[in-house]
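Task card 7
Instruction: Convert sequence to structure tokens.
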Amino acid sequence: MVMAKPEAKLTFEQALERLGQIVHSLEEGQTGLEESLASYEEGVGLLKQCHALLESAEKKIRLLSGLDAEGRPVVEPFDATASLDREQTSKAVEEEGEATRRGRRRRAAVEAKDDTDDTKQGSDGVRGLF
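Output:
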């Protein structure tokens, strides 16, 4: 396993690939404690580097909003809150869907129990299906 030097600046893609290798190695559990800890520390460093690269890229993103009087593009800073709002909304929808599914499962279980109870004893007090 080749370990990247902490001071080596990797591209985002290289850092992400190396992070994936570290995760895979740790999940396999084939390394000793010392090597696992070193890999974990390297992974944390790579994660911080990836985060910093993403933040930097986000700051560079600009939205084209038109042209000025001289024909040059007018740019506005990227609004990350819209992305966050969309992500939070998506998560809320997923959670609501899961709550709905849990409710349906509970109702189905109650109905199944009721159906079982009905087959044990009919309205005339005699056991059977009818």
